[in-house]
Amino acid sequence: MLLFALGFLLIILQPSTGQFPRVCANVQSLLSKECCPPWDGDGSPCGELSSRGSCQNIRLSQAPLGPQFPFSGVDDREDWPSVFYNRTCRCEDNFMGFSCGECKFGFSGLNCTERQVKTRRNIFQLTASEKNKFLAYLNLAKNIPSQDYVIATGTYAQMNNGSNPMFRDINVYDLFVWMHYYASRDTLLGGSNVWRDIDFAHEAPGFLPWHRVFLLMWERQIQRITGDENFTIPYWDWRDAEDCEVCNDEYMGGRHPTNPNLLSPASIFSSWQVICTRSEEYNSQQALCSATSEGPIRRNPGNNDKSRTPRLPSSADVEFCLSLTQYESGPMDKMANYSFRNTLEGFADPQTAISNPAQSGLHNALHIYMNGSMSQVQGSANDPIFVLHHAFVDSIFERWLRRHRPMLEVYPAANAPIGHNRENYMVPFIPLYRNGEFFKPSRELGYDYEYLQEPALQSFQDFLTPYLQQARQIWAWLVGAAVFGGIVTAVLTGLIRACRKKKGGTASEIQPLLIESEDYNNITYQSNF
Predict the structure, then answer these.
(1) Which helix (H) or strand (E) element contains residue 190?
(2) What parts of the chain have a pLDDT lower than 70?
(3) What pTM was estimated for this model as a whole?
(4) What is the pLDDT of residue 6?
(5) For residues 361 and 333, what is the distance between their CA atoms, to the nearest angstrom?
(6) Which cellular components does GO assign to this protein (predicted)?
(7) Residue 278 and residue 287: Cα distance in Å, rounded?
(8) Bridge partners (DSSP) listed for residue 87
(9) Contact 177, 169 (CB under 8 A)
(10) Within 13 Å, how many C-alpha atoms sit on residue 399's CB side?
(11) Which of 6, 270, 367, 498 is 20 to 30 A from residue 325's alpha carbon, by CA?
Protein backbone atom coordinates (compact mmCIF):
# COMPACT_ATOMS: atom_id res chain seq x y z
CA MET A 1 0.00 0.00 0.00
CA LEU A 2 2.86 2.34 0.85
CA LEU A 3 4.54 1.52 -2.49
CA PHE A 4 1.31 2.30 -4.33
CA ALA A 5 0.92 5.66 -2.59
CA LEU A 6 4.54 6.60 -3.22
CA GLY A 7 4.29 5.65 -6.86
CA PHE A 8 1.08 7.63 -7.35
CA LEU A 9 2.70 10.74 -5.87
CA LEU A 10 5.79 10.39 -8.04
CA ILE A 11 3.89 9.99 -11.28
CA ILE A 12 2.03 13.21 -10.58
CA LEU A 13 5.23 15.11 -9.90
CA GLN A 14 7.35 13.82 -12.77
CA PRO A 15 6.87 13.65 -16.55
CA SER A 16 6.79 10.37 -18.40
CA THR A 17 7.51 9.12 -21.88
CA GLY A 18 4.79 7.64 -24.07
CA GLN A 19 2.33 8.42 -26.82
CA PHE A 20 -0.12 11.34 -27.09
CA PRO A 21 0.83 13.97 -24.48
CA ARG A 22 -2.28 14.85 -22.47
CA VAL A 23 -1.55 18.57 -22.85
CA CYS A 24 -1.70 18.19 -26.66
CA ALA A 25 -4.82 15.98 -26.84
CA ASN A 26 -7.26 18.86 -27.36
CA VAL A 27 -8.99 20.74 -30.15
CA GLN A 28 -6.59 23.67 -30.16
CA SER A 29 -3.45 21.52 -30.48
CA LEU A 30 -4.98 19.21 -33.11
CA LEU A 31 -6.32 22.01 -35.29
CA SER A 32 -3.09 24.02 -35.06
CA LYS A 33 -1.09 20.78 -35.42
CA GLU A 34 1.29 21.99 -32.73
CA CYS A 35 2.50 20.10 -29.66
CA CYS A 36 4.97 22.35 -27.86
CA PRO A 37 3.99 22.27 -24.17
CA PRO A 38 5.62 24.58 -21.62
CA TRP A 39 8.40 23.19 -19.47
CA ASP A 40 7.45 23.41 -15.80
CA GLY A 41 10.87 24.80 -14.92
CA ASP A 42 10.37 28.18 -16.59
CA GLY A 43 6.87 28.09 -18.08
CA SER A 44 8.07 28.65 -21.64
CA PRO A 45 7.26 26.31 -24.56
CA CYS A 46 9.89 23.59 -24.73
CA GLY A 47 11.89 25.38 -22.00
CA GLU A 48 13.09 27.91 -24.56
CA LEU A 49 13.85 30.56 -21.93
CA SER A 50 16.29 28.12 -20.32
CA SER A 51 17.80 27.12 -23.69
CA ARG A 52 16.46 23.58 -23.35
CA GLY A 53 14.70 23.58 -26.72
CA SER A 54 12.30 25.39 -29.04
CA CYS A 55 9.11 24.77 -31.00
CA GLN A 56 10.08 23.79 -34.54
CA ASN A 57 8.56 22.33 -37.69
CA ILE A 58 9.19 18.61 -37.83
CA ARG A 59 11.66 17.52 -40.50
CA LEU A 60 10.31 14.49 -42.34
CA SER A 61 12.49 12.12 -44.32
CA GLN A 62 12.05 12.39 -48.09
CA ALA A 63 13.80 9.09 -48.82
CA PRO A 64 11.81 6.65 -50.99
CA LEU A 65 10.05 3.71 -49.34
CA GLY A 66 9.83 0.07 -50.32
CA PRO A 67 6.90 -1.35 -52.33
CA GLN A 68 5.20 -3.18 -49.46
CA PHE A 69 2.64 -0.42 -48.81
CA PRO A 70 1.13 0.80 -52.10
CA PHE A 71 -1.07 3.55 -50.62
CA SER A 72 -0.67 7.17 -49.63
CA GLY A 73 -2.73 9.34 -47.33
CA VAL A 74 -4.85 6.53 -45.89
CA ASP A 75 -3.10 5.81 -42.58
CA ASP A 76 -2.53 8.23 -39.68
CA ARG A 77 0.90 6.70 -39.12
CA GLU A 78 2.29 7.74 -42.50
CA ASP A 79 5.00 10.40 -42.08
CA TRP A 80 4.56 10.19 -38.33
CA PRO A 81 3.44 12.37 -36.57
CA SER A 82 2.46 14.88 -39.26
CA VAL A 83 -1.21 13.86 -39.45
CA PHE A 84 -1.63 15.01 -35.84
CA TYR A 85 1.20 17.52 -35.33
CA ASN A 86 3.70 19.21 -37.64
CA ARG A 87 5.37 21.32 -34.93
CA THR A 88 6.92 19.78 -31.84
CA CYS A 89 9.69 20.56 -29.37
CA ARG A 90 13.20 20.17 -30.71
CA CYS A 91 15.45 19.77 -27.68
CA GLU A 92 19.06 20.93 -27.41
CA ASP A 93 22.16 19.34 -25.88
CA ASN A 94 21.23 16.40 -23.64
CA PHE A 95 17.62 17.42 -23.03
CA MET A 96 14.71 15.28 -24.17
CA GLY A 97 10.95 14.86 -23.73
CA PHE A 98 7.79 16.31 -25.26
CA SER A 99 8.52 19.58 -23.39
CA CYS A 100 12.33 19.10 -23.19
CA GLY A 101 11.87 18.49 -19.49
CA GLU A 102 13.84 15.23 -19.33
CA CYS A 103 17.39 14.04 -19.94
CA LYS A 104 18.41 11.93 -22.91
CA PHE A 105 18.93 8.25 -22.23
CA GLY A 106 22.30 7.86 -20.54
CA PHE A 107 22.33 11.29 -18.89
CA SER A 108 21.11 12.63 -15.57
CA GLY A 109 21.48 15.65 -13.29
CA LEU A 110 19.87 19.06 -13.12
CA ASN A 111 21.34 20.10 -16.47
CA CYS A 112 21.58 16.59 -17.91
CA THR A 113 25.38 16.66 -17.95
CA GLU A 114 26.13 13.58 -15.85
CA ARG A 115 26.74 10.41 -17.85
CA GLN A 116 25.46 7.15 -16.39
CA VAL A 117 25.53 3.48 -17.38
CA LYS A 118 23.22 1.05 -15.59
CA THR A 119 23.37 -2.74 -15.78
CA ARG A 120 20.56 -5.06 -16.84
CA ARG A 121 20.86 -8.43 -15.07
CA ASN A 122 19.75 -12.01 -15.58
CA ILE A 123 16.48 -12.50 -13.71
CA PHE A 124 17.87 -15.67 -12.12
CA GLN A 125 20.80 -13.69 -10.71
CA LEU A 126 18.52 -11.35 -8.77
CA THR A 127 18.18 -11.87 -5.04
CA ALA A 128 14.76 -12.87 -3.72
CA SER A 129 14.24 -9.30 -2.58
CA GLU A 130 15.21 -7.85 -5.95
CA LYS A 131 13.02 -10.31 -7.82
CA ASN A 132 10.01 -9.60 -5.61
CA LYS A 133 10.57 -5.89 -6.05
CA PHE A 134 10.54 -6.30 -9.84
CA LEU A 135 7.24 -8.20 -9.69
CA ALA A 136 5.77 -5.54 -7.40
CA TYR A 137 6.87 -2.80 -9.80
CA LEU A 138 5.11 -4.57 -12.67
CA ASN A 139 1.90 -4.83 -10.70
CA LEU A 140 2.20 -1.20 -9.63
CA ALA A 141 2.44 -0.07 -13.26
CA LYS A 142 -0.70 -2.06 -14.07
CA ASN A 143 -2.66 -0.18 -11.40
CA ILE A 144 -1.49 3.44 -11.78
CA PRO A 145 -2.99 5.75 -14.43
CA SER A 146 -0.59 7.64 -16.66
CA GLN A 147 -0.78 11.31 -15.73
CA ASP A 148 0.99 12.67 -18.82
CA TYR A 149 -0.26 10.50 -21.67
CA VAL A 150 -3.55 9.35 -23.17
CA ILE A 151 -4.34 7.00 -26.05
CA ALA A 152 -6.33 7.66 -29.21
CA THR A 153 -9.61 5.76 -29.52
CA GLY A 154 -10.31 6.94 -33.06
CA THR A 155 -8.50 7.83 -36.25
CA TYR A 156 -7.87 11.44 -37.21
CA ALA A 157 -10.74 11.25 -39.71
CA GLN A 158 -13.03 9.85 -37.02
CA MET A 159 -11.99 12.82 -34.88
CA ASN A 160 -13.37 15.03 -37.66
CA ASN A 161 -9.83 16.11 -38.51
CA GLY A 162 -9.14 17.23 -34.95
CA SER A 163 -12.35 19.10 -34.10
CA ASN A 164 -13.69 16.15 -32.10
CA PRO A 165 -10.79 14.67 -30.05
CA MET A 166 -11.13 11.00 -29.17
CA PHE A 167 -8.74 10.07 -26.36
CA ARG A 168 -8.94 8.20 -23.08
CA ASP A 169 -6.90 7.53 -19.95
CA ILE A 170 -4.87 4.36 -19.50
CA ASN A 171 -2.65 2.79 -16.86
CA VAL A 172 1.11 2.91 -17.21
CA TYR A 173 1.65 -0.73 -18.17
CA ASP A 174 -1.21 -0.81 -20.68
CA LEU A 175 0.06 2.40 -22.25
CA PHE A 176 2.98 0.37 -23.58
CA VAL A 177 0.75 -2.53 -24.61
CA TRP A 178 -1.34 -0.07 -26.61
CA MET A 179 1.71 1.52 -28.24
CA HIS A 180 2.92 -1.91 -29.38
CA TYR A 181 -0.55 -2.61 -30.78
CA TYR A 182 -0.77 0.77 -32.52
CA ALA A 183 2.59 0.35 -34.26
CA SER A 184 1.69 -3.11 -35.59
CA ARG A 185 -2.04 -2.79 -36.33
CA ASP A 186 -3.51 -3.16 -39.83
CA THR A 187 -4.39 -0.17 -41.99
CA LEU A 188 -8.13 0.57 -42.04
CA LEU A 189 -9.17 1.27 -45.65
CA GLY A 190 -12.90 1.80 -45.12
CA GLY A 191 -15.85 -0.53 -45.31
CA SER A 192 -14.54 -3.92 -44.28
CA ASN A 193 -11.25 -3.48 -46.10
CA VAL A 194 -7.87 -3.52 -44.39
CA TRP A 195 -4.21 -3.76 -45.45
CA ARG A 196 -2.29 -6.29 -43.39
CA ASP A 197 1.18 -6.02 -44.91
CA ILE A 198 2.21 -3.09 -42.74
CA ASP A 199 4.02 -2.92 -39.42
CA PHE A 200 6.03 -0.02 -38.06
CA ALA A 201 7.80 -2.14 -35.42
CA HIS A 202 8.36 -5.55 -37.04
CA GLU A 203 9.39 -7.37 -40.21
CA ALA A 204 11.85 -4.67 -41.31
CA PRO A 205 15.07 -2.86 -40.29
CA GLY A 206 13.44 -0.88 -37.48
CA PHE A 207 12.51 -4.00 -35.49
CA LEU A 208 15.56 -3.85 -33.23
CA PRO A 209 15.88 -0.05 -32.76
CA TRP A 210 12.11 0.25 -32.17
CA HIS A 211 12.06 -2.32 -29.39
CA ARG A 212 15.24 -0.83 -27.95
CA VAL A 213 13.46 2.52 -27.53
CA PHE A 214 10.34 0.76 -26.23
CA LEU A 215 12.35 -0.91 -23.45
CA LEU A 216 14.25 2.27 -22.57
CA MET A 217 10.99 4.17 -22.23
CA TRP A 218 9.39 1.37 -20.21
CA GLU A 219 12.43 1.17 -17.95
CA ARG A 220 12.42 4.92 -17.33
CA GLN A 221 8.70 4.87 -16.60
CA ILE A 222 9.18 2.23 -13.90
CA GLN A 223 12.00 4.30 -12.43
CA ARG A 224 9.68 7.28 -12.30
CA ILE A 225 6.58 5.72 -10.73
CA THR A 226 8.59 3.88 -8.09
CA GLY A 227 11.25 6.48 -7.37
CA ASP A 228 13.87 3.77 -7.92
CA GLU A 229 16.31 5.47 -10.29
CA ASN A 230 18.58 2.40 -10.28
CA PHE A 231 15.93 0.04 -11.64
CA THR A 232 16.80 -1.85 -14.80
CA ILE A 233 14.85 -4.47 -16.75
CA PRO A 234 16.03 -8.02 -16.04
CA TYR A 235 16.41 -10.41 -18.96
CA TRP A 236 15.68 -14.10 -19.43
CA ASP A 237 18.50 -15.95 -21.18
CA TRP A 238 16.47 -18.61 -22.97
CA ARG A 239 19.32 -20.23 -24.91
CA ASP A 240 19.15 -24.03 -24.66
CA ALA A 241 16.18 -23.89 -22.28
CA GLU A 242 14.15 -27.10 -22.21
CA ASP A 243 10.99 -25.35 -21.07
CA CYS A 244 9.71 -21.99 -19.83
CA GLU A 245 11.96 -21.53 -16.81
CA VAL A 246 10.21 -18.34 -15.70
CA CYS A 247 6.72 -19.84 -15.92
CA ASN A 248 6.23 -20.58 -12.24
CA ASP A 249 4.62 -18.73 -9.37
CA GLU A 250 8.00 -17.62 -8.03
CA TYR A 251 8.56 -15.61 -11.19
CA MET A 252 6.10 -14.86 -14.00
CA GLY A 253 3.25 -17.21 -13.10
CA GLY A 254 2.76 -20.96 -13.26
CA ARG A 255 0.10 -23.00 -15.00
CA HIS A 256 -3.48 -23.04 -13.72
CA PRO A 257 -4.26 -26.40 -12.04
CA THR A 258 -7.49 -27.00 -14.00
CA ASN A 259 -7.16 -24.81 -17.10
CA PRO A 260 -3.75 -25.12 -18.79
CA ASN A 261 -4.37 -21.99 -20.87
CA LEU A 262 -4.52 -19.71 -17.81
CA LEU A 263 -2.11 -18.67 -15.07
CA SER A 264 -2.01 -20.08 -11.58
CA PRO A 265 -4.26 -18.23 -9.09
CA ALA A 266 -1.19 -17.96 -6.85
CA SER A 267 0.45 -15.56 -9.33
CA ILE A 268 -0.25 -11.83 -9.14
CA PHE A 269 -0.50 -11.87 -12.92
CA SER A 270 -3.54 -14.18 -12.90
CA SER A 271 -5.73 -11.16 -12.12
CA TRP A 272 -4.38 -9.05 -14.98
CA GLN A 273 -6.72 -8.21 -17.85
CA VAL A 274 -5.42 -8.00 -21.40
CA ILE A 275 -6.20 -5.31 -23.99
CA CYS A 276 -5.88 -4.92 -27.78
CA THR A 277 -6.09 -8.65 -28.62
CA ARG A 278 -9.15 -8.66 -30.92
CA SER A 279 -7.71 -7.35 -34.16
CA GLU A 280 -10.34 -8.93 -36.40
CA GLU A 281 -13.10 -7.30 -34.38
CA TYR A 282 -11.44 -3.88 -34.64
CA ASN A 283 -10.94 -4.36 -38.38
CA SER A 284 -14.56 -5.31 -39.00
CA GLN A 285 -15.68 -2.22 -37.08
CA GLN A 286 -13.00 -0.03 -38.70
CA ALA A 287 -12.07 0.99 -35.15
CA LEU A 288 -8.98 1.30 -32.98
CA CYS A 289 -8.39 -0.67 -29.80
CA SER A 290 -9.97 1.36 -26.99
CA ALA A 291 -8.02 -0.46 -24.24
CA THR A 292 -11.07 -2.04 -22.64
CA SER A 293 -10.50 -5.30 -20.73
CA GLU A 294 -10.67 -8.44 -22.86
CA GLY A 295 -10.09 -11.24 -20.35
CA PRO A 296 -7.13 -12.76 -18.48
CA ILE A 297 -3.61 -13.42 -19.76
CA ARG A 298 -3.50 -16.68 -21.69
CA ARG A 299 -0.38 -18.85 -21.76
CA ASN A 300 0.18 -22.55 -22.40
CA PRO A 301 3.95 -22.86 -22.98
CA GLY A 302 5.19 -25.79 -25.02
CA ASN A 303 1.80 -26.86 -26.35
CA ASN A 304 2.30 -24.92 -29.55
CA ASP A 305 2.41 -26.09 -33.16
CA LYS A 306 5.64 -28.14 -33.22
CA SER A 307 5.79 -28.11 -37.01
CA ARG A 308 6.33 -24.35 -36.87
CA THR A 309 8.38 -24.09 -33.68
CA PRO A 310 9.80 -27.49 -32.69
CA ARG A 311 12.02 -26.16 -29.87
CA LEU A 312 13.35 -23.14 -28.07
CA PRO A 313 16.43 -21.44 -29.59
CA SER A 314 19.88 -22.86 -28.90
CA SER A 315 23.24 -21.24 -28.25
CA ALA A 316 24.33 -22.44 -31.69
CA ASP A 317 21.40 -20.60 -33.28
CA VAL A 318 22.45 -17.38 -31.58
CA GLU A 319 26.13 -17.77 -32.51
CA PHE A 320 25.29 -18.39 -36.16
CA CYS A 321 23.06 -15.33 -36.18
CA LEU A 322 25.85 -13.22 -34.69
CA SER A 323 28.23 -14.37 -37.43
CA LEU A 324 26.11 -12.72 -40.14
CA THR A 325 27.82 -9.57 -41.36
CA GLN A 326 24.86 -7.91 -43.11
CA TYR A 327 22.39 -6.08 -40.91
CA GLU A 328 19.81 -5.97 -43.68
CA SER A 329 19.49 -7.31 -47.22
CA GLY A 330 17.28 -7.64 -50.29
CA PRO A 331 13.69 -6.46 -49.84
CA MET A 332 14.44 -5.62 -46.19
CA ASP A 333 11.33 -7.41 -44.95
CA LYS A 334 10.56 -10.94 -43.72
CA MET A 335 11.77 -12.36 -47.04
CA ALA A 336 15.33 -11.06 -46.58
CA ASN A 337 18.14 -13.65 -46.82
CA TYR A 338 21.46 -13.52 -44.91
CA SER A 339 20.11 -10.62 -42.86
CA PHE A 340 21.11 -10.46 -39.21
CA ARG A 341 17.90 -8.59 -38.37
CA ASN A 342 15.61 -11.02 -40.19
CA THR A 343 17.38 -14.04 -38.69
CA LEU A 344 17.24 -12.67 -35.16
CA GLU A 345 13.62 -11.63 -35.59
CA GLY A 346 12.91 -15.21 -36.58
CA PHE A 347 11.72 -15.15 -40.19
CA ALA A 348 14.96 -16.70 -41.50
CA ASP A 349 16.36 -20.11 -40.57
CA PRO A 350 18.87 -19.74 -37.67
CA GLN A 351 21.13 -22.33 -39.29
CA THR A 352 21.17 -21.04 -42.88
CA ALA A 353 19.85 -17.43 -42.72
CA ILE A 354 17.51 -18.25 -45.61
CA SER A 355 14.05 -16.73 -45.24
CA ASN A 356 11.35 -19.20 -44.22
CA PRO A 357 8.26 -17.44 -42.78
CA ALA A 358 6.57 -20.82 -42.31
CA GLN A 359 9.03 -21.51 -39.50
CA SER A 360 9.67 -19.42 -36.39
CA GLY A 361 13.20 -19.04 -35.09
CA LEU A 362 14.94 -17.09 -32.32
CA HIS A 363 12.74 -14.08 -31.33
CA ASN A 364 9.59 -15.40 -33.00
CA ALA A 365 10.10 -18.88 -31.55
CA LEU A 366 9.64 -17.59 -28.00
CA HIS A 367 6.41 -15.86 -28.89
CA ILE A 368 4.97 -18.94 -30.58
CA TYR A 369 6.20 -21.28 -27.84
CA MET A 370 4.24 -19.35 -25.18
CA ASN A 371 1.07 -20.36 -27.02
CA GLY A 372 -1.22 -17.59 -25.75
CA SER A 373 -1.28 -13.82 -25.38
CA MET A 374 2.41 -13.62 -26.34
CA SER A 375 1.73 -15.38 -29.64
CA GLN A 376 -0.41 -12.67 -31.24
CA VAL A 377 1.74 -9.75 -32.40
CA GLN A 378 -0.53 -6.82 -31.62
CA GLY A 379 -1.34 -7.94 -28.08
CA SER A 380 1.88 -9.75 -27.19
CA ALA A 381 3.08 -7.11 -24.69
CA ASN A 382 0.15 -8.01 -22.39
CA ASP A 383 2.21 -10.89 -21.01
CA PRO A 384 4.95 -9.49 -18.71
CA ILE A 385 7.34 -12.13 -20.04
CA PHE A 386 7.48 -9.84 -23.07
CA VAL A 387 9.92 -7.42 -21.41
CA LEU A 388 12.22 -10.23 -20.18
CA HIS A 389 12.27 -11.76 -23.65
CA HIS A 390 12.91 -8.53 -25.53
CA ALA A 391 15.62 -7.47 -23.12
CA PHE A 392 17.54 -10.61 -24.08
CA VAL A 393 16.83 -10.07 -27.79
CA ASP A 394 18.24 -6.56 -27.37
CA SER A 395 21.35 -8.02 -25.75
CA ILE A 396 21.93 -10.16 -28.86
CA PHE A 397 21.56 -7.02 -30.98
CA GLU A 398 24.12 -5.40 -28.70
CA ARG A 399 26.55 -8.28 -29.14
CA TRP A 400 26.27 -7.92 -32.92
CA LEU A 401 26.94 -4.17 -32.73
CA ARG A 402 30.03 -4.75 -30.60
CA ARG A 403 31.36 -7.54 -32.78
CA HIS A 404 30.88 -5.88 -36.18
CA ARG A 405 31.07 -2.20 -35.23
CA PRO A 406 28.90 -1.01 -38.12
CA MET A 407 28.85 2.57 -39.30
CA LEU A 408 25.49 4.34 -39.14
CA GLU A 409 25.36 4.06 -42.94
CA VAL A 410 24.88 0.30 -42.57
CA TYR A 411 21.32 1.01 -41.45
CA PRO A 412 19.24 1.50 -44.65
CA ALA A 413 18.58 5.13 -45.56
CA ALA A 414 15.99 4.38 -48.25
CA ASN A 415 13.71 1.76 -49.82
CA ALA A 416 12.86 0.02 -46.56
CA PRO A 417 9.20 -0.74 -45.75
CA ILE A 418 7.17 2.26 -44.61
CA GLY A 419 8.40 3.75 -41.35
CA HIS A 420 11.70 1.85 -41.33
CA ASN A 421 14.13 4.12 -43.19
CA ARG A 422 17.01 5.49 -41.13
CA GLU A 423 15.55 9.00 -40.78
CA ASN A 424 11.91 7.98 -40.26
CA TYR A 425 10.38 8.81 -36.90
CA MET A 426 9.29 5.77 -34.94
CA VAL A 427 5.53 5.23 -34.59
CA PRO A 428 3.89 6.13 -32.20
CA PHE A 429 6.43 7.83 -29.96
CA ILE A 430 6.19 11.46 -28.84
CA PRO A 431 8.81 12.83 -28.23
CA LEU A 432 10.17 11.89 -31.63
CA TYR A 433 12.94 9.35 -32.18
CA ARG A 434 14.50 8.36 -35.50
CA ASN A 435 15.40 4.74 -36.25
CA GLY A 436 19.05 5.54 -36.86
CA GLU A 437 19.47 7.25 -33.49
CA PHE A 438 19.37 3.88 -31.72
CA PHE A 439 21.64 1.96 -34.08
CA LYS A 440 24.51 2.44 -31.65
CA PRO A 441 26.11 0.65 -28.65
CA SER A 442 23.94 0.46 -25.55
CA ARG A 443 26.52 2.14 -23.32
CA GLU A 444 26.01 5.32 -25.32
CA LEU A 445 22.35 5.07 -24.31
CA GLY A 446 23.12 4.53 -20.64
CA TYR A 447 22.90 0.79 -20.09
CA ASP A 448 24.80 -2.46 -20.39
CA TYR A 449 24.17 -6.18 -19.87
CA GLU A 450 25.72 -8.06 -17.00
CA TYR A 451 26.83 -11.01 -19.11
CA LEU A 452 28.46 -8.72 -21.68
CA GLN A 453 30.62 -6.87 -19.19
CA GLU A 454 34.24 -8.01 -19.39
CA PRO A 455 36.87 -6.83 -16.86
CA ALA A 456 39.52 -7.11 -19.55
CA LEU A 457 39.90 -8.42 -23.06
CA GLN A 458 40.24 -12.18 -22.93
CA SER A 459 43.01 -12.29 -25.43
CA PHE A 460 44.86 -10.30 -28.03
CA GLN A 461 42.73 -12.06 -30.62
CA ASP A 462 39.57 -10.66 -29.03
CA PHE A 463 41.06 -7.20 -29.42
CA LEU A 464 41.97 -7.70 -33.07
CA THR A 465 38.80 -9.52 -34.21
CA PRO A 466 36.59 -6.49 -35.02
CA TYR A 467 39.43 -4.72 -36.82
CA LEU A 468 40.29 -7.81 -38.84
CA GLN A 469 36.66 -8.16 -39.85
CA GLN A 470 36.63 -4.57 -41.04
CA ALA A 471 39.93 -5.12 -42.87
CA ARG A 472 38.46 -8.10 -44.75
CA GLN A 473 35.70 -5.87 -46.06
CA ILE A 474 38.19 -3.36 -47.53
CA TRP A 475 41.17 -5.63 -48.26
CA ALA A 476 41.06 -4.96 -52.00
CA TRP A 477 41.23 -1.23 -51.39
CA LEU A 478 44.12 -1.70 -48.93
CA VAL A 479 46.11 -3.78 -51.41
CA GLY A 480 45.49 -1.23 -54.14
CA ALA A 481 46.54 1.61 -51.88
CA ALA A 482 49.71 -0.23 -50.88
CA VAL A 483 50.70 -0.87 -54.51
CA PHE A 484 49.99 2.72 -55.50
CA GLY A 485 51.95 3.99 -52.49
CA GLY A 486 54.90 1.80 -53.40
CA ILE A 487 54.98 3.12 -56.96
CA VAL A 488 54.78 6.74 -55.79
CA THR A 489 57.58 6.14 -53.26
CA ALA A 490 59.82 4.55 -55.87
CA VAL A 491 59.30 7.44 -58.30
CA LEU A 492 59.99 10.06 -55.65
CA THR A 493 63.12 8.22 -54.47
CA GLY A 494 64.46 8.11 -58.01
CA LEU A 495 63.86 11.81 -58.54
CA ILE A 496 65.57 12.74 -55.27
CA ARG A 497 68.64 10.67 -56.11
CA ALA A 498 68.83 12.20 -59.59
CA CYS A 499 68.71 15.70 -58.13
CA ARG A 500 71.44 14.93 -55.63
CA LYS A 501 73.73 13.63 -58.35
CA LYS A 502 73.29 16.85 -60.33
CA LYS A 503 73.99 19.10 -57.35
CA GLY A 504 76.97 17.15 -56.07
CA GLY A 505 78.10 17.31 -52.44
CA THR A 506 76.59 19.95 -50.16
CA ALA A 507 77.23 21.20 -46.71
CA SER A 508 74.20 19.36 -45.47
CA GLU A 509 75.83 16.03 -46.31
CA ILE A 510 78.52 16.55 -43.66
CA GLN A 511 76.24 17.80 -40.87
CA PRO A 512 76.11 15.64 -37.72
CA LEU A 513 73.09 13.35 -37.41
CA LEU A 514 72.41 14.52 -33.83
CA ILE A 515 71.71 18.13 -32.91
CA GLU A 516 74.09 19.62 -30.41
CA SER A 517 72.32 20.49 -27.18
CA GLU A 518 73.17 24.20 -27.31
CA ASP A 519 71.51 24.54 -30.72
CA TYR A 520 68.29 22.69 -29.78
CA ASN A 521 66.35 25.68 -28.44
CA ASN A 522 67.09 27.74 -31.55
CA ILE A 523 65.17 25.38 -33.84
CA THR A 524 61.50 25.99 -34.69
CA TYR A 525 59.28 23.13 -35.86
CA GLN A 526 57.58 23.77 -39.18
CA SER A 527 56.25 21.75 -42.03
CA ASN A 528 56.85 22.17 -45.74
CA PHE A 529 54.48 19.26 -46.48
Answers:
(1) strand 187-190
(2) 1-18, 455-529
(3) 0.84
(4) 39
(5) 15
(6) melanosome membrane
(7) 11
(8) 34, 57
(9) no
(10) 21
(11) 367
Backbone Cα Rg of the chain: 28
In contact, 16 and 221? CB cutoff 8 Å = yes
> Residue 478: its pLDDT value, please?
53
Task: Say what the pLDDT of residue 83 is.
Answer: 97
pLDDT in tens, 346-405: 999 999 999 999 999 999 999 999 999 999 999 999 999 999 999 999 999 999 999 999
Question: Can you list the positions of beta strands (E) in 4-130?
Answer: 20-21, 34-35, 53-57, 87-91, 95-96, 102-103, 107-108, 114-115, 118-120
Instruction: Please report the pLDDT score of residue 454 as a whole number.
Output: 74
Query: Tell me, what's the pLDDT at 479?
Result: 53
Say if residue 268 is exposed, middle or buried (CB neighbours under 10 Å; 0-12, 13-18, 19+): middle
Three-class SS of residue 49?
Answer: helix
β partners of residue 235: 122
Q: Give the residue from 411, 419, 468 showing the smallest Cα distance to 440.
A: 411
Contact 210, 200 (CB under 8 A): yes
Phi, psi of 104 (to 5 degrees): -60, 155
∠ CA 523-527-529, rounded to 5°:
155
DSSP state of 433: -
Residue-averaged pLDDT of the chain: 88
Domains, the chain = 20-303+371-452 (1.10.1280.10)
Distance CA 43, CA 46 (A): 9
Q: Which residues 6+ apart lie within 8 Å of 99 measured at CB?
A: 15, 21, 36, 37, 38, 39, 40, 45, 46, 47, 89
